[in-house]
Write a structure and sequence with these properties.
The complex is a heterodimer of chains A (195) and B (132).
Chain A (H helix, E strand, L loop, with lengths): L2 H5 L3 H9 L3 H23 L2 H18 L10 H21 L16 H7 L4 H10 L3 H12 L4 H8 L3 H20 L2 H4 L6
Helix pairs in contact in A: 2-3, 3-4, 3-5, 4-5, 5-9, 7-10, 8-10, 9-10
Chain B lengths: L12 H12 L6 H20 L9 H8 L2 H20 L3 H8 L8 H7 L5 H11 L1
The chains are: A mainly alpha (195), B mainly alpha (132).
Protein name (chain B): Dihydroorotate dehydrogenase
Keywords (chain B): Membrane, Transmembrane, Transmembrane helix
Organism (chain B): Pseudooceanicola nitratireducens
Chain lengths: 195, 132
């Protein structure tokens, strides 16, 4: 089947074609999903190399389970967001040298000495990514999924294994935390007061 | 004065603008990385074709069945078995006249005489022993 025809198919259908051995489906799916996973992994890790590793592993897992994929049970992207977040969390745990209660991490303070230093010479996206990295993992994940990936709260609840209310709470706290950190960077970011 | 980072009716306006910019920004995915990921996908897919589903393993019964010639042979064997059972349980008349039936195979003395063994085997052996 030509590339253009495949591009009109949804992820589920493409994954079936992939499992049936269609190499064009492999190319279309990779081109469609890799940027999504990479962007999400980068926003969660703040580290390009680590994001690439996570992206490669998440997609490998998808390819391997393709023959057993059950159409209609879950969106491919939802599954990938969940796997990506789990891989990032596993990486963070390893770096921290053991199990960590992610929700026990305190909310960021607006006068962290390192945060404003890091953001001073960076562009807006770097500032946002740096600010995101100051959030607790779950808050960061919820904020990224809600406000950057544009998912709905029920979709995020499914990905994070939470209730919708918990998601709302996480995104609200995360957004407040970001605002506190970025408040220091208003001038650098071009968001100055209007007066 | 309007501070875009204050929590106004429409939320954190400045933050939302940053989110919009982030959403529009391309993923930091290099061509090399995309090529590598595509190769991964094709490699895993090639593995599907290289390892077709293994044929179902044949059990001992299936092996024995194949050894005797399959289901046709099994049907023949079953038919022969049933026929033998039938003949044994309800022997036809001609089988009984061959002396394979019960002791009441004959009804008359003439038939008994006809059916009697005139020279039983043990008599023959005795006779041969005397001559030697």
């Amino acid at each position: 089947m030509p590339f253009d025809d495949l591009s009109s198919l949804d992820d589920d259908a493409l994954l079936v074609l992939y499992a049936n051995g269609d190499p064009m489906a492999a190319r279309v799916l990779t081109g469609r999903l890799a940027p999504v996973v990479m962007a999400h992994a980068y926003r969660l890790t703040g580290n390009r190399t680590e994001a690439e590793d996570v992206t490669q592993e998440a997609l490998l897992r998808l390819w391997k389970i393709a023959p057993e994929w059950r159409q209609g049970e879950a969106k491919v992207t939802t599954w990938l967001y969940r796997v990506t977040a789990n891989l990032v969390t596993d990486g963070l745990r390893r770096r921290r040298g053991g199990s960590v209660d992610l929700d026990a991490i305190p909310e960021p303070e607006d006068d962290r000495p390192g945060a404003d230093q890091v953001m001073q010479d960076r562009a807006r996206m770097d500032a946002l990514n740096a600010a995101l990295m100051t959030l607790p993992d779950r808050q960061r994940q919820a904020v990224v999924l809600r406000h950057i990936e544009g998912l709905t709260n029920p979709e995020i609840a499914e990905i994070m294994d939470l209730g919708v209310e918990a998601v709302e709470s996480l995104t609200a706290r995360g957004k407040r935390g970001l605002a506190k950190v970025l408040e220091w960077q208003k001038k650098n970011l071009g968001y100055q007061d209007d007066d | 004065m309007t501070d875009k980072y204050t929590d106004k009716d429409d939320g954190f306006a400045g933050l939302d603008a940053l989110f919009d910019t982030a959403r529009a920004a391309p993923a930091p995915l290099s061509e090399d990385m995309l090529d590598r990921l595509t190769r991964d996908a094709l490699d895993v897919q090639a593995g599907f074709a290289a390892s077709p589903a293994a044929p179902p393993r044949r059990g001992r019964l299936a092996g024995w069945l194949a050894a005797i010639g399959g289901w046709p042979a099994m049907a023949t064997l079953a038919t022969a078995g049933v026929a033998g059972l039938w003949i044994g349980a309800m022997p036809p008349a001609f089988v009984e006249t061959l002396g394979l039936g019960s002791a009441t195979a004959s009804d008359t003395a003439e038939d008994d005489l006809y059916l009697v063994d005139p020279l039983p085997g043990f008599v023959v052996s005795l006779t041969m022993g005397e001559g030697s």
